[in-house]
Amino acid sequence: MKTSFFLLFTVIIVSVCSLPSTAQDNPQIGLPEGAIALIGKGDLGEVHFSPDGSQLAISTSIGIWFHDPQTGKALELLQRPNIRYPFAFAFSPDGNRIGIGVRAKKRNTSGSSRYSVEVWNATAGEAKEMRLGHLHRVKSIAFSPDGNYIASVGGFSNTARLWNLQTGEKISIRRVHSKGFNLVVFSLDGPTFATVGYDNAAYLWDGKTGNHKITLTGHRKQVSCVAYSPDSKTVATGSSDRTIRFWDATTGTHQTTLTAEVGSVRVLAYSPDGNIIVCGGGNGDVQLWDTQTLKLKSTLTWHTARIGSIAYAPNGNTIATASLDGTVRLWDAATGKSKVTLTGYMRINAAAYAPDGKTIVTGNRDGNVHFWDVSTAALKNTFTGAKNGSISNITYSPDGKMIAAVSSYNDQVLLRDAKTGKHKATLKHFGLIDTIFVLLQNREYEIGPIAYSPDGKTIVTGGDYYTVEKGTVYLWDANTGKRKRVIFKGPGMVSSVVFSKDGKRIIATGDWKNEVRVWHAATGKELAPTPADVPSGSKGLLYSPDGTTIASVRQDGTVLIREAETNLQKE
Question: CATH code at 373?
Fold first, then answer.
């Protein structure tokens, strides 16, 4: 039912691997002053090795993490403030600069938001140059082999940009992709670059003038990825039609086709010697193919969700893969064995303290539930979530034995045992007739806030028909999951609900007006609010039961824990 921005993404499943090679360090690097710990490394984006192979760089919703490619140990975090989602980035050939796609601070004359490519000094961590020009989020960035040019593409806006970094000249690129650009890759010898979009073709361009040269057609479905061979003589394209096609880079002549068994082919990368091409697909598998014999060498099967990025180490010994399961894996390129798994990459939507204050439970966009140690930020346990069920809110029962998680995409609340993860009950807001009615009325419903009564026997939920600004407040039996009473169904969106301390009243606040409404919990009769009914604290701010720490769910999808007496910085 949801048509929100998050539906553009495939569901992520965070895998907690028990193998000794798993790197579950949650490095507390770059913490703000007064912060105790950070939970989560941010939502996972791209992976790239530095040109000298000494570092593995991973973009997330909080910045770029640098890791030791042998051990997986986190080395540094290049923070990017005020971003919410993973971003495209690329190293310059000499490794001294990094191009990063960000939301620009400036706006164009029409007032619409614009995006930019920042060129950072990789060693000093400082932005040196900014090039504006994208109306939509930058999807891909590439440096020319000599480092003098940088190309970027802007997704659905169907914009591509090429800049001469020496002169600052912007070189125009003609719009050819019918539905927008998605990826840009330079040939390794420099004269050309390739782009793919949301259509069934790839395009080759002059790397200095931006003139269109060749169109590669033949795929039956969307072309998702493109890669040049190290000698720049061949272009490989991967498609949702589950094939890899090889083309002559000079003439555009089709050479041969491979059928990959990875589902939709999403990413491609050549080995440095050009003898292997590795592909990742929609089913989470990674395959290595011999480019001379066109035979399959090995299949890497540890990932549990779509592969989003692949990188070969410059020495050809290691392959890095990033998956929408929230993990980055390092593989031995010769044997196909998993060497190290990096975890902790996820988007956290909601969090709650356990009644004892020692644990924080988080609900993620992937539908999973994670339990973290408050003092160390170490991951303690994981419950696999419901299919297609991003967790938008989560809470503990007063006795700490149960957790209630709002699964937003399917409009349900899941009740689970807090220790075993066993499913106990489901609070279903809609039956078949309700669903049909909502669809016919062109309305969108979303469960939002949730709270337990002090005795743990009742759950209150708030919901919104947010397209028509109408709200609901329902009461449920916490043991059976059956709906007990409809407290409110009327105008005004409901943004928070809570029981009074004695459990006799239900207090709700609404939309941007922050209007407070109060009902008698037993009768449903609306009462006049009192000053004591006005909630304190900001949305997403959690106080530990003993009052010693404060946790905040940040826009970048992480949770920051501070001492309670520390002055909170604005998020």
Answer: 2.130.10.10
